[in-house]
C-alpha cells in the first residue's frame, strides 16, 4: 500500500519571532501619484486621509479636485442626539474652511457641490466665486430647492476655462434679461431640472461654439426650444412633465446621436423637427405621441442612420420603418395603452439586430434579408389559462416573420407559452425553419423540459444549437 510522504518543514528560531505588519507601499509612491489617488475621494475623506502622516498633510493643498455633498458628507458630522440642522451647519462651515484654504496651484480641475438651498444668497454666492478664482475646468452644481430657487450668478457663464458644466435644480432666467454667455472651451453641457426660457437656451448655445454634447432633462419654462449648433454631436432632450413644449427644432449638421423622451400623460404631440440633421447615426424616441406623418417622413431621410429605438410610443396605430442603412432596431410596446401602436412594418435591407418587447396582439412585418440577431420578449402572459389556440396561432405567425435570422433569443412568461399543441403542428409549417441558433428563457421554472425541448425543435427544425436558460 502506497504511503503518503509528508514534506518536512524546519522551523528556525527566527520564525518564532512575531511577524511585522504588512509593508506600507503607499508611502513609497511619488507625491504626484498620491495626489492623484486622493483626487478620486470625496473631499472630506481626502482630508481625513491626509492626517495619516506629516507628508500627506502637506499634499491636501495640492489636490485639484474638490467634491462636496451635503447628503453624503453630513454623516461625518453626526453625533449621538445631534440635531439635523446642527449637522448641516457644520457641513456649511466645513465647506467655508476648505474654500478659504490656500492652494498651491492657481487652477482647480473639477469642483462638485451638492447642497440644499434655503434662501439667503450670501454664502452661496461666496462659494460660487471659488470656481471663478481657480479657473475650474469641470463644474458640477446640484442645488436642491428647499425653500427657494437659486439663480446662478451670470459670471459663471463667462468662465472661459470650463470644458464641462452640469447644473441641477437652479435658475438661469434672470430678472434683467437673459445672461451673456462666453464659454469658448465648453464641450459638454448638462441641464437637469433647470428653470429657463427659450432665449436663455439660445444664448447658451451661441456662447458655446465648441459644444459637442448637450443634455436637457426635465427643464421648466421652455415652450419652443431651438437647438442651433454647428459643433453639436450628441443631444438628449427629456420633456418636463409639468410644462409641455410645442415644438423642438434642432439644426445641427454634425449631430450624430439624438434621444427624445416625452411625457406618457400627454395627449397631443410635440413637433420634433430634425430635418436639418441628416447625419444622425443613433436615434431614440420614448413616450412620444406620434400623431401625423413627421416620423415616417423623417426616417427615410436619415441616410447615415445606424440604430433606432422606439419605446412606448403612441398616437398612431401603424408605424413604417423604412431605411436603407439601418443596422439596429429596438422596439418596445409593453405598456398597456389603447393608444399604443399595434403594427410596425420594417423594411430595412441592412438590418443586423432587432429587439422586440411586447404582446402578440401587435402585428409585425419584417423585411430584413441580412438580419443576424433577433431578441424577442413576449410579455404579459403569466396566466396559464391565457394560452389558447388563438394565442398559439398568433405566436406561429409572429415568429415566422423572423425566419432566416441567424440567431434568435426568445423570452416569455412560462413554458406553456412555447409548447405548441400537436393539432396546430399538423396544420402549420414550422415558423423558424431556417434558424440554426436559438436561446430560450422563461420567467417561471420549467417542469416539462422534454415537451418543451420537442416543441422548440418543431419551431426550429434546423437547429444546430438550442440553449434553454
TrEMBL record:
InterPro entries: F-box-like_dom_sf (IPR036047), F-box_AtFBL13-like (IPR053781), F-box_dom (IPR001810), FBL60-like (IPR055294), LRR_dom_sf (IPR032675), LRR_FXL15/At3g58940/PEG3-like (IPR055411). It comes from the Eukaryota. Residues 23-80 form the F-box domain. This is F-box domain-containing protein. Keywords: Membrane, Transmembrane, Transmembrane helix. Gene3D superfamilies: 1.20.1280.50, Ribonuclease Inhibitor. Residues 1-20 are annotated as: Disordered. SUPFAM superfamilies: F-box domain, RNI-like. The chain crosses the membrane at residues 33-51. The keyword Glycoprotein does not apply. The keyword S-adenosyl-L-methionine does not apply.
Amino acid at each position: 500500500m502506497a504511503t503518503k510522504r509528508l514534506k518536512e518543514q524546519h522551523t528556525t528560531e527566527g520564525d518564532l519571532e512575531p511577524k511585522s505588519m504588512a509593508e506600507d507601499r503607499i508611502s513609497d509612491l511619488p507625491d504626484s501619484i498620491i495626489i492623484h489617488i486622493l483626487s478620486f475621494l470625496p473631499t472630506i475623506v481626502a482630508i481625513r486621509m491626509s492626517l495619516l502622516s506629516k507628508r500627506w498633510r502637506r499634499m491636501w493643498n495640492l489636490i485639484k479636485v474638490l467634491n462636496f455633498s451635503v447628503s453624503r458628507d453630513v454623516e461625518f458630522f453626526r453625533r449621538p442626539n445631534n440635531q439635523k440642522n446642527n449637522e448641516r451647519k457644520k457641513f456649511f462651515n466645513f465647506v467655508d474652511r476648505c474654500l478659504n484654504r490656500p492652494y498651491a496651484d492657481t487652477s482647480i480641475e473639477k469642483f462638485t457641490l451638492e447642497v440644499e438651498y434655503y434662501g439667503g444668497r450670501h454664502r452661496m454666492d461666496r462659494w460660487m466665486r471659488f470656481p471663478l478664482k481657480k479657473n475650474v475646468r469641470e463644474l458640477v452644481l446640484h442645488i436642491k430647492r428647499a425653500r427657494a430657487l437659486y439663480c446662478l450668478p451670470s459670471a459663471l457663464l463667462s468662465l472661459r476655462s470650463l470644458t464641462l458644466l452640469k447644473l441641477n435644480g437652479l435658475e438661469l432666467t434672470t430678472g434683467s434679461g437673459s445672461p451673456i454667455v462666453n464659454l469658448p472651451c465648453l464641450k459638454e453641457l448638462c441641464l437637469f431640472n433647470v428653470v429657463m426660457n427659450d432665449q436663455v437656451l439660445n444664448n447658451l448655445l451661441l456662447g458655446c461654439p465648441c459644444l459637442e454634447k448637450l443634455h436637457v432633462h426635465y427643464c421648466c419654462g421652455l415652450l419652443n426650444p431651438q437647438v442651433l449648433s454647428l459643433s453639436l454631436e450628441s443631444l438628449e432632450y427629456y420633456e418636463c412633465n409639468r410644462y409641455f413644449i410645442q415644438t423642438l427644432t434642432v439644426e445641427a449638421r454634425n449631430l450624430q446621436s439624438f434621444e427624445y423622451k416625452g411625457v406618457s400623460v400627454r395627449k397631443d404631440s410635440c413637433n420634433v423637427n430634425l430635418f436639418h440633421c441628416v447625419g444622425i447615426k443613433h436615434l431614440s424616441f420614448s413616450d412620444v405621441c406620434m400623431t401625423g406623418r413627421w416620423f415616417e417622413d423623417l426616417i427615410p431621410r436619415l441616410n447615415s442612420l445606424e440604430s433606432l429605438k422606439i419605446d412606448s410610443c403612441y398616437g398612431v396605430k401603424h408605424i413604417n420603418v423604412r431605411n436603407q442603412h439601418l443596422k439596429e432596431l429596438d422596439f418596445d410596446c409593453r405598456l398597456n395603452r389603447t393608444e399604443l401602436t399595434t403594427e410596425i412594418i420594417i423594411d430595412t435591407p441592412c438590418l443586423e439586430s432587432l429587439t422586440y418587447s411586447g404582446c402578440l396582439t401587435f402585428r409585425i412585418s419584417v423585411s430584413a434579408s441580412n438580419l443576424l440577431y433577433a431578441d424577442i420578449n413576449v410579455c404579459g402572459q403569466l396566466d396559464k389559462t391565457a394560452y389558447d389556440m388563438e394565442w398559439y396561432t398568433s405566436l406561429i405567425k409572429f415568429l415566422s416573420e423572423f425566419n432566416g435570422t441567424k440567431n434568435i433569443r426568445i423570452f416569455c412568461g412560462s413554458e406553456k407559452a412555447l409548447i405548441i399543441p400537436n393539432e396546430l403542428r399538423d396544420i402549420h409549417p414550422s415558423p423558424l425553419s431556417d434558424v440554426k441558433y436559438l436561446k430560450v428563457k422563461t420567467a417561471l421554472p420549467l417542469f416539462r423540459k422534454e415537451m418543451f425541448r420537442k416543441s422548440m425543435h418543431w419551431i426550429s427544425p434546423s437547429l444546430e444549437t438550442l440553449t434553454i436558460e
